[in-house]
Amino acid sequence: MTDQPSPASTEGKPSALVRFDAFAAMLGDRRPAVFLDYDGTLTPIVERPDLAILDDSVRAVIRRLAGLCPVAVVSGRDLDDVARHVGIDDLIYAGSHGFDIRGPDLRTQIGEEYLGDLDEAEAALLGRLHGVEGALVERKRFAIAIHTRRVARDRKASVGDAVQGVAAAFPKLRVTGGKEIHELRPNVPWDKGKAVLSLLDTLGLAGPETLPLYLGDDETDEDAFRALAARGEGQGVGIRVMDPPAPSAAAWSLKDPAEAGAFLDRLAVWLAEG
């Protein structure tokens, strides 16, 4: 097993927690800039988004880590929603997959001209999915999420068909997906990966003295893994939270949110010790 396996492989992703010494050696004397997904990474996946509550111990770790290196939370959730759930002031928050970014002396919004299309598409989806038990249409400022985790198995395909039908009527929007979720977003070349690269530039973290780390668990996080991998070997690190192993552009892995929290705690201790 190598520390940096092929991004296309489904196995051989070393654990950033179990092999932390090797991970720290790779980091060397560079300062990390840590980017964190929320659902499935910091908290377990649950049936309803409002039930994904961050454990106080993990919140304390993130707060301690933010005192040692730059930390940003990059989530598919609405910006205000993820900021409320994390509950730490002065962090950088990127909501709606990076379309809505806020931090100290920082405010960026991408795609405001698409809000009207999102309003109309939301109304259409509510009409199409009315009566489908368990289907949840969640409007964010720059996206619409359709959750299917509570939908009966034999109805899930029809929900996907309804989403595709609505999307066909709104060419300015595009469909993306994830674990038990469909999403409509502005049809522009912007995603978590581009948001991370933009933040690195904006915050002055794009130089060789900084190593960006991204922790995520879902398909939308692969955009960030690929963006960091494209910077060149050793210039960005993706850590996929996954069990069992799956194809990923991330080079390292963690099994679940509990391991993610333990890894962040280990990283904070290592940084504090210099």
Automatic annotation (TrEMBL):
Keyword Protein biosynthesis among record annotations: no
Cofactor(s) required, per the database record: Mg(2+)
Pathway(s) it belongs to: Glycan biosynthesis; trehalose biosynthesis
One matching Pfam family: Trehalose_PPase
Top-level class of the enzyme under EC nomenclature: hydrolase
Taxonomic superkingdom: Bacteria
Catalysed transformations (reactions): alpha,alpha-trehalose 6-phosphate + H2O = alpha,alpha-trehalose + phosphate
UniProt entry keywords in alphabetical sequence: Hydrolase, Magnesium, Metal-binding
Biological-process GO terms, alphabetical: trehalose biosynthetic process
Assigned EC number: 3.1.3.12
Molecular function GO terms recorded: metal ion binding; trehalose-phosphatase activity
Residues in coiled coil: none
CDD domains named among the record's database cross-references: HAD_TPP
This protein's record includes keyword Magnesium: yes
Role noted for this protein: Removes the phosphate from trehalose 6-phosphate to produce free trehalose.
Entries under PANTHER family matching the protein: TREHALOSE 6-PHOSPHATE PHOSPHATASE
Family (UniProt): Belongs to the trehalose phosphatase family.
Name the UniProt record assigns to this protein: Trehalose 6-phosphate phosphatase
Native source organism of the sequence: Azospirillum brasilense
Gene: otsB
